[in-house]
Amino acid sequence: MAKRMRLNAVEMANPVQDNAGLWLYPGNRVERYKDLDYWIELAQTLERGKFDALFFADILGVYDVYQGSRDTAVREGMYFPINDPSYAIPAMAAATEHLGFVLTASLSYEHPYALARKMSTLDHLTDGRLGWNMVMSNLDSTARNYGLKQLDHDERYNRGDEYLEVCHKLWEESWENGAVVRDRINRIYADPAKVHEIGHEGKYFKVPGIHLCEPSPQRTPVLFQAGSSDRGREFAAKHAECIFLNAMTENETKFLVQDIRQRAERYGRNPEEILFFPKINPVIGDTEEEAQQELHNLLAYSSPEGALSLLSVWTGVDFSTVSSDDLLAFIRKGEQRSGTNYLFEFFKRNGGDEEWGIEQLSKYFAFGGVGSLRVGTPEQIADQLEQFMDHTGVDGYNIAYATRSETFEQFVSKVVPVLQHRGRVQNEYATGVFRHKLLG
Amino acid sequence: MAKRMRLNAVEMANPVQDNAGLWLYPGNRVERYKDLDYWIELAQTLERGKFDALFFADILGVYDVYQGSRDTAVREGMYFPINDPSYAIPAMAAATEHLGFVLTASLSYEHPYALARKMSTLDHLTDGRLGWNMVMSNLDSTARNYGLKQLDHDERYNRGDEYLEVCHKLWEESWENGAVVRDRINRIYADPAKVHEIGHEGKYFKVPGIHLCEPSPQRTPVLFQAGSSDRGREFAAKHAECIFLNAMTENETKFLVQDIRQRAERYGRNPEEILFFPKINPVIGDTEEEAQQELHNLLAYSSPEGALSLLSVWTGVDFSTVSSDDLLAFIRKGEQRSGTNYLFEFFKRNGGDEEWGIEQLSKYFAFGGVGSLRVGTPEQIADQLEQFMDHTGVDGYNIAYATRSETFEQFVSKVVPVLQHRGRVQNEYATGVFRHKLLG
């Protein structure tokens, strides 16, 4: 039997994500990110489409590599302004029954003692529907505003290992099963002998005490991760239950899936229990022509400058100082810097280099980078999603949108029924907590 | 015309607060603090009663002064376990239209750059219904779990002054009015020239950048504070718009109201714009006899040990090592340590000392300390609330409960109508944001 296709929707609590310029598309009310109504409606739409989860990306700074300034980000509403996404979750949870919620939270700034309480609280209030996307923040602008200097890349991950160790002790070891007795005869709410100090003393953290929360339905939220560097993959293999992959080719996806599963096996884990979700951007039409027309209409709003400002953050190179020729040369080098190899793959996949200048590039960045675009009828998109899944071993998709609400509305009403008819997307939710729903 | 009586409900995201032992009262389902349904129902009850706000107290540690151990707190469910209260707010906001939400958050641990985003987000999502109760955490157990040592009392407040300065700059100065233009013709989401780096460099914080959120309806949440020490009152007079007073005698209340208003005047503030809310615990009956019977029934469940463990935290004295006689001697000294002078006042008010042993004391601590109890028919309670208000100059009350849901249900259905009939409690909410509703 074909593997079930799991679906997550990608959102952020800000006006514009990777879809640079598309906030201008008619009817795209991006400013609704500030309204509870928007989030509640979205959650209900996704639950109607039997999505597994809403995946909240997040950053704690502003993109300021391009032109050495945050002006482009501010003007374009690109990833900025950005609210704390965690606060949409309780309202969405109250309006749904099954949908999971994956919250991105950095291991670099909030103290694990406080983060553990926050996650336990959300897992309680959602009745066990929480996931945590663990990120090591990599923006200098964030570190500066915390009055800190960034640790170097690998040390961030070393510290991350210890951070997770603290969280694990708080969530899994501090409270025994059965510690909360609520014994009204003997007047015992919780048995002090079954609640334990974790006594953590490490290189980065000292947390002697007990977890502030009684055990939540899942104790540990489902752990997501998205790192693709060598150190990031090692971290994922050790800790993550779900991996979010940035869009890329079949070959690269297949490599990453196998690589991380092999590493996980070395940690004694069952490699099949790690789920992979590449990001895709669907553009849907009732006919192929309609879909292409829709893509054309959307691209008319894309912003080259916005796209380059994104690319500048992803690569660390200020593209305002780079000519078209230099950009192509740079990309052709296929360096191993973050994002760069994807670009290289992207160029190859799209027939080489010369015909792809900055303008064309930016149009494709209007859809969140490279390789994520899926254009066609519901059947064609369903075909593409099934094939990519079967060829690469991924377990489903993180679906991003071109325009707020509309993309998800269309995907749920048009593509999901096709995938359900083919037995790939669930018709009903499984019972139980998020981890059980995802892993079966 | 008599001043409007403002009403806030006091809650925490934990099983038991100051009402030690009362979780055992039949039907008191304290464990519902983990359920969204509980919070949504409560918010709707309070809005039916035209309450101004739900006031969320919070702590980030566990009480462990009594017997030098956290065992009593764990066994009694006293302030522990404790979830993050902020996450109940969005679900309650979605289910109500006017009710305000006051969130306690410490200035001692979370970085102001992150706290400012959290508060702006909640103010956006609640459409301007947020208040912030600013506390300087004072539990050693919290500091230890953050790997820190506590600053001394006055330095905590000095740091608090700078903390608020950072928040003020982020909320009020970083984004000009009109910075968010959403100009679809010129493709400008926000005007970079109207968004400003705050450039904060102080003794405790360096925050060079811009606020992550566009201006929320109130920008700055309504500022609450509860400090009663000399330094705490100075802080309140400088910053707070609302003051939460722990229950105490008329004379002491009157003194504090006048003292803080005078200090505020020295900061150039209008002293009448600072609102005071003492805490009260109502016990309501249809007849006086019924009310006294209800009090008797409740007290049968009170926990002397739980009360002493609270008292130990408030005074810093481990009362497990103190005999009844020593306790009375200690209290009679009326020392200026936190809480001690209230105890002294309490003893005087209740006719002296000898007849009040630890057992009797603990029963009154079953209602959150001293002076807060109001027992009687709805009319009698209304009388007491009106008189205390008129004699002391306070602006309303923070109402605590004996048993979860039931106390507020009774207060809303029985006492509020009497107070509305007398023209003291509002019949309809004013329009506008929380600050406008509170201050008119």
What does this structure look like?
Chains A, B: Residues 33-395 form the Luciferase-like domain. Chains A, B: This is LLM class flavin-dependent oxidoreductase. Chains A, B: It comes from Paenibacillus baimaensis. Chains A, B: Belongs to the NtaA/SnaA/DszA monooxygenase family. 2 copies of one chain form a homodimer. In chain A, strands 1-2-3-4-9-10-11-13 form an 8-stranded parallel beta barrel, surrounded by 4 helices. In chain A, strands 5-6 form a two-stranded antiparallel sheet. In chain A, strand 7 and strand 8 form a beta hairpin. Chain A is built from 16 helices and 13 strands. The first copy, chain A, is globular, with a radius of gyration of 22 Å. Mean pLDDT of chain A is 90; it is low at 334-342. With 440 residues, chain A is an alpha/beta fold. Chains A and B meet through helix 2, helix 3, helix 4, helix 5 and strand 6 of A and helix 2, helix 3, helix 4, helix 5 and strand 6 of B.
